């Protein structure tokens, strides 16, 4: 099983630790991971802004980099969802369809493909889990409070295996953080307010760290935490699963 | 003419036909708990339940709760305040109705609603214009869900029919629930228990 | 009387939301209130084990309606006429308004009482009638309040959810004679009851909306908690019902599914107090129904967006939408706000409503609460593509996106751009950390790492 590591553009440039942790975690679990060095971006920022027609280059570059792998894994629910839903290429449509079937977000790869039952990690802290919308409602990483459904959570399943970790309970377990791509500046007032409210929920319930499967949500909440001069830090779930 | 234009546009634009669900079978509370569920729902929606053993018991209730001058009305012949409606009355005539009591076809346990049609109302406006509302429900006529309800209604013809669930209400002012908006201020269910 | 809609026409959601967010405490109050209603909806939904099956059934019924709308409308018309209901067809808002006016003028009526109808908001009926000498009173308490305030409703089910009780008290003091400073909801509601009772008793004409119309039997259903639709209709000489053509259901039994879903989705109640089935006019009364198109047949032809016509106007999407709760209905400058408004409005006027599909993070909560399973957030994404393609996107944004495409389509350019970004943040933060940078208004920028992942990988994986 050859796995291609797909690192979101902004994670590559601004949050490399999330990608490093992802790589190390997969290697620890015995996965043959490769990192195609010519990757850039999945195209989501443009597509979500209404410019899907400008993502042809990103699409073909993505296919070029990843078509040959058995699985493609990424520490990003929203990027994976975008690829799953929107990857197309006039010249290599077969490859595009193939990729859409074998692209996985990190958490679901661990629970559904590797079927990990024992993570050796230690992180003795109070952690708030932010349910990133695309991962939750798009990739169905966990049950959703709106639906009448059996409760389950793949991220929780993994976090529960981490020694010493205490998951705090939130007042609104799956409300959106307000990042939303270009929304974060196009609708700055609402975006910031949504982020503030999310952060407040975690702080009120005693989180020392906020984690998620999406660095974009965390980047947004981190910006607000730092502006508040809070001691609470954000960490991608890969970093926690790889800790201690 | 607009009718032709609209229909033609629709015919052009509507998609391929899809199947229509016909068989509406869903979980129901069992018959044994249906009465309890109904009573529970009536209390939840702001109504009250008075258990009676014969229809005439309603007369006693009315005597106890309404002063002699109050205008009480009902199309039910068994009651003291039976009103021989002609069906020709000006609806404005009923403006000072204090209590009006009606017979229901059936009641629905899942939401506390009762079904009444025009032929049991005396006048369409009466269940709404009266200050206080009374509804006779026979226990054996309580059904579990709305699916059962429409089964019972079947093809029955009526000029006007309504489900009424509790007293009128509004929460438009800062989500504070207030009972008694434009319809009845209170709703009393006279629950006629079945003979065991 | 000026058009209530035109007060914010031209100004877009982002700017209006910015203004709304100046009062943070009020935003918290608005958000908490609507979240509470969402929570009540959750409780009601979770009380029905077959809830998801009900949604799927409702969705399929509505799919069938849309795909056979032509025949169902003809069937409904024929059955309604046989019942003694007079059926009118209006291609657009203007025609609808003209029909209503002519019905009133024909009977020498110049006063009308109205119960809640979002369709008439869409058609700006009140303003039209007022301009033509008809006095209209909205009888739904929330609608009466916004009418007195000379504002449009901000929510399709809870028209004055944006108003505090003190403000309502003040309005009632000014217009209905309550004492100054009175804000108790019980007292205010009682005042409205007495005031509107007088209205019901003196109006010869009543206009209602239509929640559902049944093709099989030619009857229509009006759902209220207050009883105002019934009070108006049963006392009037002429009852006019305004209905969007998509509001049909095939058979009476299908009402069971929708009456179970509607109010639970809207407010968490098991059913509205009144679900009145109007089939034949009262003896001596005229009953009319106006079937309105106003862009619906066009939307029906839009493959990506036709599902929006399944909407039963419950408002659940608004209650759950984190953006709606923190921006308020008026920020959508449209009769219907929130997620459903954002996918209906661009069909009517793409230029005016180009901003609405972007007033969202695409979180998907709306799609989950929709009782008829409209794929709302997917439609928001698709509208974005259409709006950009039709040229309604600002030039600056298009340029920025093209630059992004240029940068991201080459690994070399991408790595260089990233490096420059990190260098700038590290060495010249003032160029980025200022009020020109919208991100920076309320958030710190990310700390630039010393190397990117790809640089680290190159070093550590020879």
Q: Could you give a short account of the major beta sheet of chain C?
A: 6 strands, parallel
Count of DSSP H/I helices of chain C: 21
Secondary-structure element pattern of chain A, one letter each:
EHHEHHEHHEHEHHEHHEHEH
Low-confidence stretches of chain C: 1-8
* Beta-strand fraction estimate of chain A: 5-15%
> Which CATH class of the largest domain in chain C?
Alpha Beta
What would you call the shape of chain C?
Answer: globular
Number of domains of chain C: 2
Description:
- By secondary structure, chain A is of the alpha/beta class.
- Chain A folds into two domains: about 110 residues; about 120 residues, Rossmann fold, CATH 3.40.50.
- Helix content of chain A is about 45%, strand content about 10%.
- Chain A has a four-stranded parallel sheet with strand order 2-1-3-4, with helices on both faces.
- With about 200 residues, chain B is of the alpha/beta class.
- Chain B is about 25% helix and about 25% strand.
- In chain B, strand 4 and strand 5 form a beta hairpin.
- Chain B has one domain: Rossmann fold (3-Layer(aba) Sandwich), CATH 3.40.50.
- In chain C, strand 5 and strand 6 form a beta hairpin.
- At the B-C interface, helix 1, helix 4, helix 5, strand 8 and strand 9 of B face helix 2, helix 3, helix 4, helix 8 and helix 10 of C.
- Strand 8 of chain B pairs antiparallel with strand 9 of chain C.
Element layout with pairings:
The complex is a heterotrimer of chains A (244), B (196) and C (462).
Chain A (H helix, E strand, L loop, with lengths): L1 E4 L3 H6 L1 H13 L3 E3 L9 H5 L7 H11 L4 E4 L2 H10 L6 H10 E3 H8 L12 E4 L3 H6 L15 H6 L6 E2 L15 H4 L1 H17 L4 E4 L2 H13 L5 E4 H5 L3
Parallel strand pairs in A: 1-2, 1-3, 3-4, 5-6, 5-7, 7-8
Chain B lengths: L1 H12 L17 H14 L3 E5 L4 H9 L6 E2 L25 E5 L2 E3 L4 E5 L8 H4 L2 E7 L3 E2 L2 H8 L6 E5 L4 E2 L7 E2 L6 E7 L4
Parallel strand pairs in B: 1-11, 2-3, 3-6, 4-7, 6-11
Antiparallel strand pairs in B: 4-5, 5-8, 9-10
Chain C lengths: L12 H8 L3 H23 L4 H17 L1 H14 L3 E5 L2 H14 L4 E4 L3 H5 L2 H7 L3 E4 L2 H8 L16 H11 L9 H18 L2 E4 L3 E3 L4 E6 L3 H8 L2 E7 L3 E2 L5 H12 L7 E5 L7 E7 L3 H5 L15 H5 L1 H4 L12 H11 L16 H5 L6 H14 L5 H14 L2 H17 L25 H8 L2
Parallel strand pairs in C: 1-10, 2-3, 2-4, 4-7, 5-8, 7-10
Antiparallel strand pairs in C: 5-6, 6-9
């Amino acid at each position: 099983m050859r796995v291609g590591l797909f690192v979101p553009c902004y994670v590559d440039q601004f949050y490399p630790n999330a990608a490093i942790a992802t790589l190390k975690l997969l290697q620890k679990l015995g996965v043959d991971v490769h990192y195609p060095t010519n990757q850039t971006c999945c195209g989501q920022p443009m597509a979500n802004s209404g410019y899907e027609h400008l993502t042809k280059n990103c699409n073909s570059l993505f296919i070029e980099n990843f078509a040959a792998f058995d699985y493609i894994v990424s520490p990003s629910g929203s990027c994976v969802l975008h690829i799953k839903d929107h990857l197309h290429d006039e010249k290599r449509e077969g490859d595009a369809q193939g990729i859409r079937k074998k692209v996985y977000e990190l958490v679901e790869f661990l629970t559904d493909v590797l079927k990990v039952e024992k993570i050796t990690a230690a992180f003795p802290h109070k952690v708030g889990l932010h349910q990133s919308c695309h991962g939750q409602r798009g990739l169905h990483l966990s049950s959703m409070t709106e639906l009448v459904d059996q409760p389950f959570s793949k991220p929780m399943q993994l976090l529960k295996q981490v020694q010493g970790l205490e998951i705090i309970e939130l007042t609104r377990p799956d409300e959106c953080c307000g990042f939303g791509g270009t929304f974060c500046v196009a609708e700055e007032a609402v975006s910031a307010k949504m982020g503030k409210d999310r952060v407040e929920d975690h702080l009120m319930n005693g989180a020392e760290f906020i984690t998620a499967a999406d660095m974009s949500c965390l980047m947004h909440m981190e910006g607000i935490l730092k502006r508040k001069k809070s001691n609470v830090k954000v960490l991608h779930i890969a970093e926690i699963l790889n800790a201690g | 003419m607009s009718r032709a234009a609209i229909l033609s546009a629709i015919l052009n634009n509507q998609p391929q036909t899809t199947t229509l669900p016909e068989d509406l079978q869903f979980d129901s509370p069992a018959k044994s708990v249906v009465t309890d569920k109904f009573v529970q729902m009536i209390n939840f929606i702001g109504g009250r339940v008075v258990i009676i053993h014969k229809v005439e018991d309603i007369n006693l209730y009315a005597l106890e709760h309404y002063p002699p001058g109050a205008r009480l009305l009902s199309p039910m012949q068994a009651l003291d305040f039976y009103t021989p409606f002609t069906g020709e009355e000006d609806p404005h005539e009923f403006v000072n109705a204090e209590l009006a009591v009606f017979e229901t076809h059936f009641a629905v346990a899942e939401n506390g609603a009762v079904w009444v049609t025009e032929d049991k109302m005396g006048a369409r406006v009466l269940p709404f214009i009266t200050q206080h509302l009374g509804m006779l429900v026979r226990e054996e006529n309580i059904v579990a869900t709305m699916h059962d309800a429409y089964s019972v209604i079947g093809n029955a013809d009526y000029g006007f029919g309504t489900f009424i669930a509790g007293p009128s209400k509004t929460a438009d002012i800062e989500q504070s629930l207030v009972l008694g908006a434009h319809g009845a201020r209170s709703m009393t269910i006279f629950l006629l228990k079945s003979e065991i | 009387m000026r058009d209530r809609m035109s007060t914010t026409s031209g100004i877009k959601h982002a700017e209006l939301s910015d203004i709304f967010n100046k009062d943070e405490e009020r935003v918290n109050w608005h958000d908490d209130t609507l979240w509470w209603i969402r929570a009540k909806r959750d409780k009601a939904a979770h009380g029905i084990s077959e809830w998801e099956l009900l949604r799927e059934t409702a969705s399929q019924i509505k799919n069938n309606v849309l795909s056979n709308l032509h025949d169902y409308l003809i069937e409904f018309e024929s059955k309604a006429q046989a019942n003694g209901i007079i059926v009118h067809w209006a291609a657009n808002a203007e025609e609808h308004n003209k029909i209503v006016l002519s019905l009133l003028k024909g009977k020498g009526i110049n006063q009308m009482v109205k119960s809640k109808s979002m369709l008439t908001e869409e058609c700006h009926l009140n303003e039209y009638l007022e301009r033509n000498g008809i006095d209209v009173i909205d009888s739904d308490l929330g609608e009466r309040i916004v009418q007195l305030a000379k504002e449009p409703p901000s929510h399709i089910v809870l028209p004055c959810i944006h108003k505090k009780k003190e403000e309502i008290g003040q309005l009632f003091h000014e217009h209905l004679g309550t004492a100054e400073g009175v804000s108790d909801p019980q007292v205010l509601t009682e005042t409205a009851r007495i005031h509107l009772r007088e209205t019901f008793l003196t109006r010869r004409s009543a206009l209602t909306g239509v929640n559902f119309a049944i093709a099989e039997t030619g009857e229509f259903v009006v759902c209220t908690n207050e009883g105002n639709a019934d009070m108006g209709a049963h006392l009037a000489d002429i009852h006019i019902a305004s209905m969007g053509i998509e509001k049909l259901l095939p058979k009476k039994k299908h009402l069971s599914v929708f009456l179970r879903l509607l109010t639970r989705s809207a407010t968490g109640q098991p059913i509205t107090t009144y679900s009145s089935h109007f089939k034949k006019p009262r003896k001596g009364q005229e009953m009319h129904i106006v079937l309105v198109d106003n862009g619906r047949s066009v939307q029906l032809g839009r493959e990506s967006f036709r599902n929006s016509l399944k909407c039963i106007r419950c408002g659940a999407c608004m209650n759950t939408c984190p953006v709606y709760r923190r921006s308020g209905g008026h920020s959508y400058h449209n009769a219907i706000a929130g997620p459903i408004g954002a996918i209906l409005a661009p069909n009517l006027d793409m230029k005016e409503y180009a901003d609405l599909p972007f007033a969202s993070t695409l979180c998907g909560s709306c799609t989950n609460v929709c009782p008829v399973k409209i794929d709302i957030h997917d439609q928001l994404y698709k509208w974005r593509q259409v709006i950009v393609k039709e040229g309604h996107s600002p030039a600056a944004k298009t340029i920025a996106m093209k630059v992004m495409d240029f940068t991201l389509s080459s690994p070399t350019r991408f790595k260089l751009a990233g490096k420059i970004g990190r260098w700038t943040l590290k060495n010249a933060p003032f160029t980025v950390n200022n009020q020109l940078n919208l991100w920076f208004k309320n958030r710190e920028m990310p700390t630039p790492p010393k190397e990117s992942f790809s640089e680290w990988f190159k070093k550590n994986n020879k």
